[in-house]
Design goal:
eight-stranded mixed β-sheet; 11 helices; 13% strand; Rossmann fold; 12 strands; alpha/beta
Length: 450
C-alpha cells in the first residue's frame, strides 16, 4: 500500500535522531507539516521508518529515510540533498539519545559520548537556521551535571564542595549559553516540563520539550487538558478530562500475532501472586524478601518490582525491558508482559504500525519512542506561531533568551505503601488497598473495595 495523495502542507520539517518515529508521527498527524526527511543512525529503526512510510502510515513517498551518524554528518550536505538553503526550513525536530541523562540509570552525563549529541543538534540548528526547532529529551536532562560526582563523595557526605561542572543543571546551562551564541543570539528557547498523560495519552511519561525560534516569539505550550480523578467528587478538576487509562488504550485491540519479551517461569511464579494494580508490596514479607534478594533492603520505592498493571490507571512509563523483575509490566489479567503491539498502542502509534527486527529490537524501539501525542500537541503549538509571526512577536528586549516552564509534569496515580498497607488509587473514586498476604492467598484480589 502506498501513501494516498494529499494537498501540499503549509510548513516543512526535518527530523533528526528519529528513532522509531514517535515524534515524527505526531507532527505528521497534525496535517500541517511536510516531513522532508528522517535521519537516524540505527539500521533497524530505519527499516521500521521505511516500512511504515511505504505503508502510508506517516510522511509521503517523498519523505527520505537517511541512515547516518549525526555526529559526523555535514548539515550543509544534508541541506543540499534536500534542496534547502539556510533559513528556509520551518521546523527542525529531534530527540538526541537521552540515556546519559536519565535518572533511571547510571548518570554519566557528558562523560558518555552520547551526551555530546545535544551539541550536534545545536550544530544543525546553526547551519539550517530553521524558523523553529523542537528538541525533546528526558526530564532528567534538566538536573544533569557536566561531571558526575558519586553520591558517597558529595559535600553532605563529607566531600569537598561541588565544582561548577558538578552542579545540578550545569549541562543545560552550558547548552543554553552556547545556543545564545548562535547567530549573535537570535534564537530564544522556551523549555517545557510536561507529562504525556496530561494531554490525553494513556501513559505516564515525563519529558522536556525545548521549543526555540529565531523570530523573537515567546511560545506558550498548552496547559494540561486531562487530570486525575478527585476521590471526593469522582470527577477531575473543572475544565479537565479524566486521564486516559490502559483500558482506554487497549479497548477492542487484538494482537493476532503478538511479539513478546515474556517473563521466565520463575518470574511468573511470583507475578501470579500479584493482583492487578499491585507490586512487590502485596506479597508476604518472606516471599518478597526471597524473590528480591538484596533489592528488598534497598532504598526508594522500587515500584516496578513484580508490577502488574491496572486497567483503570494510565500505563506506567514504557520501558525497553518490560520482562525484568524490577521493571515488570505484567498484563492486568494474564501472567505475561504486554506485547510489542500493545505497547505501540499505548504509545499511540497508528494501527498497523510495524517494527523491524527481533523482539528485543522491537521493544527497544517502542520503549525509546516519544509518545505520539506530545509530537501532535507540539506541532499544533508551533504551527500556531508560524501562522501568525507578527501578531505573536514580542517587543525586542522583553524576553529572556532561555525560559523554563513547569506544566505539572510530575504525576502520581499511586501511593504504594503507608502504615503497613499497600495502596492503589483506583482512578474513579474511593480507595482500593491491599495488605500483605500469606503464601496460601494466591487468588487475585479485587481492584476496588466493596
Amino acid at each position: 500500500m502506498t501513501a494516498a495523495p494529499r494537498k501540499k502542507r503549509k510548513f516543512r520539517t526535518v527530523s533528526l535522531f528519529s528513532g522509531a518515529g514517535g515524534l515524527d508521527v505526531g507532527v505528521d498527524q497534525s496535517g500541517l507539516f511536510d516531513l522532508l526527511a528522517c535521519v537516524e543512525l540505527q539500521p533497524r529503526f530505519c527499516e521500521t521508518l521505511t516500512l511504515n512510510r511505504d505503508n502510508g502510515l506517516f510522511g509521503t513517498e517523498d519523505t527520505r529515510i537517511i541512515q547516518a551518524d549525526l555526529s559526523k554528518l555535514d548539515p550543509y550536505e544534508l541541506m543540499d540533498e534536500l534542496g534547502l538553503k539556510p533559513g528556509e526550513l520551518d521546523l527542525l525536530a529531534g530527540g538526541p539519545p537521552c540515556q546519559s541523562f536519565s535518572t533511571a540509570g547510571r548518570r554519566r552525563t557528558v562523560e558518555d559520548p552520547r551526551g555530546t549529541l545535544l551539541w550536534d543538534f545545536l550544530r544543525f540548528v546553526e547551519a539550517f537556521k530553521p524558523k523553529y526547532f523542537l528538541m525533546e529529551n528526558v526530564r532528567g536532562l534538566l538536573s544533569a551535571a557536566l561531571r558526575h560526582r558519586p553520591i558517597a563523595d558529595r559535600p553532605d557526605k563529607g566531600g569537598p564542595p561541588l565544582t561548577a561542572e558538578e552542579r545540578q543543571g550545569s549541562v543545560i546551562e552550558l547548552w543554553a549559553d552556547d545556543m545564545a551564541k548562535v547567530d549573535n543570539g537570535i534564537y530564544r528557547v522556551d523549555c517545557f516540563e510536561v507529562n504525556a498523560v496530561n494531554y490525553g495519552a494513556p501513559q505516564l511519561r515525563e519529558r522536556v520539550l525545548f521549543i526555540g525560534n529565531r523570530v523573537n516569539q515567546q511560545v506558550e505550550f498548552p496547559e494540561p487538558t486531562h487530570g486525575p480523578i478527585d476521590p471526593a467528587t469522582g470527577q477531575p478538576q473543572p475544565g479537565l478530562l479524566p486521564h486516559c487509562t490502559l483500558r482506554d488504550a487497549l479497548a477492542a485491540f487484538r494482537d493476532d500475532d503478538p511479539v513478546l519479551m515474556d517473563f521466565s517461569p520463575r518470574k511468573k511464579h511470583y507475578l501470579a501472586m500479584i493482583p492487578a494494580g499491585g507490586n512487590w508490596r502485596t506479597l508476604p514479607t518472606e516471599v518478597a524478601q526471597e524473590s528480591m534478594g538484596k533489592a528488598f533492603f534497598a532504598k526508594g520505592g522500587r515500584s516496578g518490582w513484580w508490577r502488574r498493571l491496572s486497567w483503570d490507571l494510565p500505563c506506567p512509563t514504557i520501558v525497553t525491558l518490560p520482562n525484568h523483575a524490577s521493571t515488570s509490566m505484567c498484563h492486568p489479567d494474564e501472567v505475561r508482559a504486554l506485547s510489542v503491539g500493545e505497547f505501540a498502542r499505548v504509545q499511540e502509534f497508528p494501527d498497523g504500525w510495524s517494527f523491524a527486527g527481533s523482539a528485543m529490537e522491537q521493544m527497544a524501539q517502542v520503549g525509546n519512542a516519544v509518545p505520539v501525542r506530545l509530537g501532535l500537541v507540539a506541532a499544533h503549538t508551533i504551527a500556531r506561531y508560524l501562522e501568525r509571526p507578527s501578531d505573536l512577536q514580542a517587543t525586542e528586549g522583553d524576553l529572556p533568551r532561555f525560559r523554563r516552564v513547569y506544566l505539572n509534569s510530575h504525576v502520581r496515580t499511586r501511593q504504594w505503601y503507608k502504615a503497613g498497607q499497600a495502596f492503589v488509587w483506583d482512578g474513579i473514586g474511593g480507595s482500593a488497598h491491599y495488605g500483605r498476604r500469606t503464601p496460601a492467598q494466591q487468588e487475585p484480589l479485587p481492584l476496588f473495595d466493596a
